[in-house]
Amino acid sequence: MKTATLFNSRGWRAMALALTLMAPAAASAAPAKDTLVIGISQFPRNFNPNIESMLAKSYILAMARRPLTAYDADWKLICMLCTQVPSYANGRAKNETTADGKPGIAVTYTIRPGATWGDGVPVTTKDVVFTWNVGRNAKSGFGNLELFQRIVAIDMVDDKTFTLHVNKRTCEFAAMSGLQLLPAHIERANFSDPAQYRKRSAYETDTTNPGLWYGPYRISQVVTGSYVVLERNPTWWGKKPAFARIVVKAIENTAALSANLLSGDIDYIAGELGLTVDQALAFEKRAGGAFDFSYKPGLIYEHIDLNLDNPVLADRRVRRALLHAIDRQTINRQLFAGHQPVAHGQTNPLDTVYDKGAPKYAYDPARAKALLDAAGWSQIRNGIRHDATGKRLQLELMTTAGNKSRELIQQVLQSQLRQVGIDLRLRNEPARVFFGDTITYRKFRDMVMYAWISAPKGVPRTTLHSTQIPSEANGWSGQNYTGFKNPAMDKVLDEVEIVCEPKANKALWRDLQRIYGEELPVLPLYFRANPYIIPKWLKGVRPTGHQFTSTLWIEDWRVGN
Amino acid sequence: MLRYIAGRLLESLAVLLVVSFAIYGLIGLMPGDPIDMMVQGDPNLTPDDAKRLKALYGLDRPIMERYAAWLGNAVQGEFGYSRHHGQPVASVVGARIGNTALLLGVSLILALGLAVPVGIYAALRPYSPLDYAINMACFAGISVPPFWLALLLIILFSVTLGWLPAGGMETIGDGGMADRLRHMILPVVTLTVASVGDFTRFMRASMIQTLRQDYIRTARAKGVSATRMVIGHALRNAMIPLTTVIALSFGRLFSGALIVETMFGWLGMGKMIYDAILGNDYNLALVGLMIATALTLFCNFLADIGYVWLDPRVTLASRAASR
Fold first, then answer.
1. Phi, psi of A176 (to 5 degrees)
2. Residue ranges of the alpha helices (H) in chain B?
3. B88: exposed, middle or buried (C-beta count within 10 Å: 0-12, 13-18, 19+)?
4. CB-CB: which of B32, B44, B156 is closest to A437?
5. CB pairs under 8 A between A and B
6. How far is CA A25 from CA A22, A258, A286, B157, B161, in A?
7. pLDDT tens sequence across A321-374
8. CB < 8 Å to B279, chain A
9. Closest-CA distance of chain B to residue A436, Å
């Protein structure tokens, strides 16, 4: 998980200086606007909703199409294209046994009656079946093949109602956002050669074809690398959006992005894909008057992975001492003005499965010192701890070079750990090397700082299950980079996806967070916040904090007083 | 002449071949690939998905095998598909090369249009207050980082004064000539400032040296007017070193274009190449970099022709022998 922008920190400093030198004429009063211009820092590589997931694409497509289900701003699963969220209680979910005797589930959805592609053709179950056929073909280039292969059959009940037969029973059966419908009447011909589909898809060759879209807006113009224009979709079945046109402009340099906001070339910087918190704080100090600022913490979890194969870090007392020695509240307050809440585990407090009783580690240097003494690091020479054999307690912390926030945190950690006698050495690498080599092949000696993106109720199986430790034997697959092996955790991870009775499921989530907190394979730092810089006249923007972007509710955006 | 051109063409092809191999190899040596990056950013992707996608995009094949396949297609004029843009490479490059050429061309002409007369002026009055002022301005231009200058210009002319657009190539829904020219002003000024200082300094130094030549002294003694002496006698000789500098500075202008294109959202080659390299978009990176290499080679070739025009003592045969 990374974002890289050219000359980010230097550019930002230059911007700050320039803003100090010159009084900015900030964008201000509420105009009678027909067009809303949104600035984002990335341009989508393609427009096919199922090929390659990237935030810029999700952000734009959320205005032009709707998933079957999504999590809303209150993190509640809702229907967007469907009429009712399936559940056992409403009879839309029924357990069944698959042909090979495994526990499966049948889930029934009904597409909204008015749902229509932009060319007037109704969205029907034919589109569902076509999408499934494309998705389960390994040559189609879809990212998440597993989702489509889990669906073993689809019953078309009628034009709008269909039942998915899924060969794996999980508690999140109703969340079906990955099944992004394709218009069969347009895409069928392009799928005649599956291996060529990703090149021939109308989403790439004819992006402005109205028949590809069924949201409040449809894409009417694309200038690759620069901007996308969306216009009201006349066949949209929901609430009429306030703006006739939305223009999404990609400006990759964040300092230039801010300057564009000040000059009025753009109206609003997307929180999901705009400035970082420190950049937004600097912007707020200098030009905050015309804008509302909202910092929404979300599912991007900044943490430090520990190499548990290292005998020093294999000792749980040392891991706990490390966390007690870090003053995360002060880091949050001093560096992020309190906008990036301290994480006590990988589960976000906004998530419905969050357990308040999970272990927490307050800043307590005395406790850290006691734990280190107990672990055998009791001899202090020149302020650094040594063990009985004279080995120095020296750890190496790596992160992505050029990420200003992480590099600042590194320096604070170095100073704080020094106070309890730990010699922290810093070594950074370009994101490319760091993620592509050091982490993937578990080449880090001690500790690595980076972030994970998750989803609401996302089970951290790939990062915590012992079968997910990357190694030569498994072709370096899996993302359990710490090398965490814990039978109790494995058992919980195996069960939490399939034991769905609410009380039992909640208990499993509680266990998961407890084991995570007690064992500390990872040092939790904070949940990253997205800064939304919204002009005072723009109303209705509701940050979500998860992967479903605020533009899924674009029809609520309007000019207000 | 024909023999010389044929020789240069062969040399250029050899250089392009070596460059293509080096670029392909270097990108291949970079750790990680786009699918690894994709996995980091998408919690839904499984290790099996990653394996399948690597096979689909050919990223699981040895680098030499991929290069050989690319080369085989390239000699037939098929440059492949840009994974980054989801389009054939030719379309992506075709749409951008003109934009960069426009930006570089206009700024180069402007820079030379300023540097030559100002450099001459400074050379005619060396160590005068005006010469010092010109020198200081040149050093300022050389020292100011283009991205910082770009930001200052945006803040001044777009934010504070509101005279010019802060970025982009045209106003959405307008796109007329005047509108496009307005959008060009700030990027062109940024690039011009970045190169005019160097050119002026070279022009001044070269002109001072030329003015000390015996034949200039003779011309002066014969009563040739100052204007005629400079334009008719000294300028052509003084331009020879500048021609070399211009040819060599083309690569630097390209990297300047990368910064300017990023800051102003100008859809050009510099930014495209940068993104392609970072995103392991082999096909696009290769073609982009090879075009940049070919342009640099072409500029050097033009410089050679320029020497012949500027200095009658130089012939293409002597240039070929001196290479």
1. -125, 45
2. 2-29, 34-41, 47-56, 63-74, 89-124, 129-143, 146-153, 177-211, 214-221, 226-228, 235-248, 250-264, 269-278, 282-310, 316-322
3. middle
4. B32
5. 192
6. 9, 13, 11, 11, 8
7. 999 999 999 999 999 999 999 999 999 998 889 999 999 999 999 999 999 999
8. 45
9. 4
- Cβ contacts of B317 within 8 Å, gap of 6 or more: B4
Count of positions (residues) in chain B: 323
**Structural Rg of chain A based on CA atoms:** 25
Beta-carbon contacts of B38 under 8 Å, excluding residues fewer than 6 positions away, are A52, A53, A143, B45, B50, B53
HEC-encoded secondary structure of A346-415: CCCCCCCCCCCCCCCCCCCHHHHHHHHHHCCCCEEECCEEECCCCCECEEEEEEECCCHHHHHHHHHHHH
The verdict on a CB contact (< 8 Å) between A224 and B92 is yes
Q: Of B37, B40, B275, which to mutate for an interface test with A (greatest number of A Cβ within 10 Å)?
A: B40
Tokens encoding A500: 């769905």
| Ordered strands of the A245-250 beta sheet | A217-223, A227-232, A245-250, A35-40, A268-269, A522-535, A291-306, A447-453, A394-400, A423-429
Closest CA to A491 of A469, A470, A464: A464
Q: What DSSP character marks residue A111? A: B
Measured CA to CA, the distance from residue A50 to residue A64 in angstroms comes to 14
How far, in Å, are A461, B17, B245, B293, B321 from residue B5 at the CA level?
64, 18, 22, 17, 13
Based on its alpha-carbon atoms, the radius of gyration of chain B, rounded to whole angstroms, reads 24
- As a whole number of angstroms, the distance between CA B285 and CA A27 comes to 39
- Report how far residue B41's alpha carbon sits from residue A3's, in angstroms, rounded to the nearest whole number: 10
Of A22, A52, A250, the CB nearest to B156: A22
CB–CB of B55/B33 below 8 Å?
Answer: no
Taking the C-alpha atoms of residue B267 and residue A27, their distance in angstroms, rounded to an integer, is: 26
CA distances from residue A55 to A1, A35, A41, A178 in whole angstroms, order as listed: 11, 22, 10, 14
Query: What is the identity of the amino acid at A183?
Result: P
For the purposes of burial, counting CB atoms within 10 Å of the CB of A355, is it exposed (0-12), middle (13-18) or buried (19 or more)? buried
Residue A26: which of B165, B171, B160 has the closest Cα? B160
Nearest to A527 by CA among A282, A398, A339, A331: A339
Answer whether residue A26 shows pLDDT above 50. Answer: no
Q: What is the C-alpha separation between A317 and A315, in angstroms, rounded?
A: 5
Angle, alpha carbons B198-B204-B205 (nearest 5°): 90
Instruction: Supply the pTM of this predicted model.
Output: 0.81
Torsion of CA A240, A245, A248, A249, to 10 degrees: -160
Tokens for A12? 């930002």
Per-residue pLDDT at B263: 86
A222 and A235 Cβ atoms separated by less than 8 Å: no
* Tokens 């689909």 sit on residue: B56
Task: Annotate A228-264 with DSSP letters as a single string.
Answer: EEEEE-TT--SPPPS-SEEEEEE--SHHHHHHHHHHT
Question: What would you measure as the largest C-alpha separation in chain A, in angstroms?
Answer: 78
Q: Rounded distance, CA A400 to CA A402, Å?
A: 6
Is B240:B311 a contact under the CB 8 Å cutoff?
yes
Angle of helix A8-21 relative to helix B146-153, nearest 10 degrees? 40
Shortest CA distance to A207 belongs to which of A46, A83, A322, A361?
A46
- The complex's ipTM works out to 0.72
Contact A22 B84 (CB under 8 A): no
Chain B nearest C-alpha distance from A225 (Å): 7
**A368-417: per-residue pLDDT in tens?**
999 999 999 999 999 999 999 999 999 999 998 888 889 999 999 999 99
Element (H, E) at A489: helix A487-496
With 0-12 CB in 10 A as exposed, 13-18 as middle and 19+ as buried, what is A240?
A: exposed
d(CA A507, CA A303): 25
> Half-sphere exposure of residue A107, counting CA atoms within 13 Å on the CB side?
24
